[in-house]
Target: Wax synthase domain-containing protein
Amino acid sequence: MTIAYLLLDKLKLYSSSTIPALLFYILTCKQSHDTSNAILSAIVLLNFVVPITHNGAHGDKIDHSVVATMASYLGFGMIRYMVDRHQGKPTVPFYRVLDTWNQRPDQPQSSEEKTTSSNQQPLDTSTMQSNTFKWLMLGIFRVLLSMPVMAFLDGFLRVCNEPPLDPPYTSLMFSGQSIPIPTLYYHAIASIALVMHLVLVPTVWLVIHSLKLSYLALFSPKTMSSYHDEVAEFVQRPPLFDRLWLASSVHDMWSRRWHQIFRSAFRDIAYLPIRRLFPKKPMLGRALGVMSVFILSGLMHDYILLCMVGYQQYISVPGSMGMQTTFFLLQGLGTVISNHHAIPKMPRILARLLTFLFLLYTAPFFIEPYIRIRLNRIARVPGYPQTLDPYLGPVCPYGSRLDV
Model:
């Protein structure tokens, strides 16, 4: 295939998948209430259906994962827009659903803080230029620091043979069979690699926007103020992950230490509506609200996998369909139990050990479907070195593919 043909093939996928979002934007951009929720709901449904109709064709698995993820982001934004409009709340454009990801929750300000904030003088150009240089150096440092880490993690996935996939992990787990330690080890490394890919997202964002800000600082310093404030707000957000290895419970892991990208959307779409159904039983309402969030998250991840492989392979290949939802159901149960103190209080080190073991034994439900489609074999960050690949054989639990 020629490069032109491949680009045209990808264009079919991306362009067709943006049509529903474009329609929704046209009908809501003027914040009017003329368009009925029935029409908007049909567009939301179309937004999720279009990526599925490609059945894994037009583009590679990464392209389909990007399209499905964006369909999920925008779909949640559309639903939230419709809910806010129905409840008479101020509406935010649906495509800004991620504007608040990992933002610090609003804290009440004292009258003194409000006065100080209102009297704060705008930064001068030299200060903004200094901040720009500092942020750019921080982003570059993080990239350089991540290179050897990703060289090992992605190299491990590219080089090492996969664990046996027959029988599927669900059969091993729920039949009470012994789980081989090498299998758990492989999935643990794969899980860490996945987390590290997510960790790189804000780093890449920081580098790209710092470069743009540097350009403005050099050639158009008078126009950089608003863009500087946007980057400054981003830099002040909490990290995407908060020391996952210190999680003392499953609830602590998912409510505080895992990324909160979808927190506001899941809260408004799933948690709060379910919780309101049980006004006289608040504990039950909270538990079911939490479970609804994890079910929604599982369905979203299964949807992404469905779009990546196509509905025929998703349905026919054992160990694929429903695995993501099963994983998140287990995490939801663990979160509810550990949050409501259903288990006795224990020393922190023991709590961390039990949390680690729970995650270790449930992680394969999430990872195995991606191994089945061999996504691990193309694991890489563009531009990152692959120099460690020939030397990773000794750490491969099932041997290296390079030895064959």
Remarks:
- The longest helix spans residues 181-219.
